[in-house]
Structure formats: structure tokens, C-alpha cells
Amino acid sequence: MDYQVIWFILIAVLFTGFFFLEGFDYGVGMLFPFVSKRPEDRSLILRTIGPVWDGNEVWMITAGGALFAAFPHVYATMFSTFYLALFLMLVALILRGVAFELRTKEKCPCWQKTWDAAIFIGSIVPAFLWGVAVTDLAAGLPIAHNMIYQGNFLNLLSLYSILGGIVFVLVFAYHGASFLQLRLVDKGLLSRIQGLGKCAGGSAVIAYVLYLLLTMENTDLLARPCSLALFLATAVFFLLSLCLFAKKPGKNSFILGALAIASVTFGFFAGMFPRLMVSSLNPDWSLTITNASSTEYTLSIMTVAAFILVPIVLCYQIWTYYIFRKRLTADDPAHY
């Protein structure tokens, strides 16, 4: 197998891990203002992601680093294309991280409400922008023969890309509710989380159906059998997850939701292969794993390093989740 193909697959795996882990992370941040108005309940909800949220973001950094090293032309074009969107995302993520640390430093209700709003904004903005960016990549962007984006920020927003952002927000909100069901004990909170999860999940199903229709019209992803099968598998996994969640939420509904996120991410990459960025001006000007990659020598060194370090990182993250696997109660030590 070519090194370019190996790194295309590895980047797909990294983004799958990122959307799975950071998905419920964002979801918890989006939901917690609506679950309860009591400060102690909100603190309890944030403690479910407290030990892991910053570790989850490492997946985004790793995926970006891998993209830079393996496909530098894609990295350059993508970051110049989404410059403003990525800046907004970075500001939102910084605001979110600061809010986690500062919200309990003062007892004033206004102080905590302000940082609670920052966590909500810092969760929903990146989720929405990721949906817009992924949809734009699938639909194609005005990229010239010199690999330079020819549009502006407003050109990134269309009915299709905005719907993509909404789908990401709704799916992550459902994923967050599904995760909270595994980490909390309080029946009152669980009941409200289940109601919010069903609302987000049901809305996500409708939005996803519309998204598939627009994907069929605006891209060629569904023309590829492998990609089509994965997108349909996503619908099946998500519906099964939602049915289980509505009746008796637990591990099975969470796992099925995770499989839905994994299958739609792999479906996107399978539909894009061997392209990484599609040019809407001329298909021949698209950035592919061939014309945008590093040298064979660079990729060979990176491959050896990846096969040594990635399993170590995976083991560390699994161990972290194992340590913090127990359900939380109000009696557990509070930090957030």
C-alpha cells in the first residue's frame, strides 16, 4: 500500500476519533444550561467531562498536525480557505477552556452564569463550524490551478453547508445526552437529559435525511457504493441508538451512536478518496493524495513514528477513561 493511502486512512481514523470523543464533549457543553438551573447540578454535569475534555482536543491537534506533515499543500489551502472560521473556532475553544477553570472562582451568580454561557457558546460554535467546513469540502470550493482559494468567507455559507452545521450540532447534542446517561445517578437529571436527548436525536434524524438529499444533489459522494453504504449504515445505527435511548438509555445506545459517527466520517473520506479538497472550478485542480503529499521519504519516517506512538497514545486515553469510568454523585469532589 502506498504511503499516501496509509496517511489518508490514518487521518480518517484521527478525525473519527476526534468527532467521537469531542462530539459528546461538545454535546455536554451545549446541553448543560438546559438540564438544570441549579449551580450544583451544572457543576456535577461538567465534572463528567472534566478529566477528559482537554485530552479529547488532542485528537484535533494530532489530526491537524498529521495533515500538515503528510499533505502540506492541503494544510496550506485549507487553513487559508477557512482562516476566519478557524479563528472563530479557536476563540470559542479558548473561551470554553477558560470558562471551565474560572466559573467557580467567584460565588456571584452573574459570574457563573457568564462563564456558563461561555461554555455553551464555546461548544456550539466549533460544532457548527466543523459541520460547515466538512460540508464545504464535500461540495467543493473555488480552488484555482495554483491551489489557492478564490472566494471569501461568505462563499463558505450556503443552504447545504448551514444544514451540515445544524446536523453536527444536533448529533453532538444527542451524543452528549447519551454520554451523560452513562455518568450520572440522579434520576431527576437523567429524566431531563433523556427528554433533551430525544428532542435532539429526533431533530437530527430529520436534518440528516434532508442533508442526504442535498448531498446527493451537490456532491458525488453517494455515487460511490462504499460511501453510500456507510451513509446508510449511519442512518441505521443512529435510529437504533435513538430507539434504545428513548426506551432504556445505556451503553448500547451510546455505542450505536458512536458507530453512527464513525460510519459517517469514514463515509465522507471514502467518498472523497483520493481527493482531499475538491475544486468546483475544475476537477483537475482538486487537491489529492498524490499532488498534495509530502515526499516518499518524509512519509516513510512519519509512518514508522506513527506506528510506534499512536498505540501508546491510544492506551493512555483508554486508561484515562477507565480510571474515570464511575458514575458521579453530588458527594464526589468538585472542581468545576
UniProtKB/TrEMBL annotation:
Enzyme Commission number(s): 1.10.3.-
Cellular component GO terms held in the UniProt record: cytochrome complex; plasma membrane
Pfam families assigned: Cyt_bd_oxida_II
Localization terms from the record: Cell membrane
Keyword Transport belongs to the record: yes
Membrane-crossing residue ranges in chain numbering: 6-35, 82-102, 114-133, 153-174, 195-216, 228-246, 253-277, 297-319
Annotated membrane topology: Multi-pass membrane protein
Main enzyme class: oxidoreductase
Organism domain of life: Bacteria
The UniProt record lists the keyword ATP-binding: no
Keyword annotations: Cell membrane, Electron transport, Heme, Iron, Membrane, Metal-binding, Oxidoreductase, Transmembrane, Transmembrane helix, Transport
Gene Ontology MF term list: electron transfer activity; metal ion binding; oxidoreductase activity, acting on diphenols and related substances as donors, oxygen as acceptor
InterPro entries, alphabetized: Cyt-d_oxidase_su2
Main location group: membrane
GO biological process terms on file: aerobic electron transport chain
Family: Belongs to the cytochrome ubiquinol oxidase subunit 2 family.
Protein name: Putative cytochrome d ubiquinol oxidase subunit 2
Organism per entry: Selenomonas ruminantium subsp. lactilytica (strain NBRC 103574 / TAM6421)
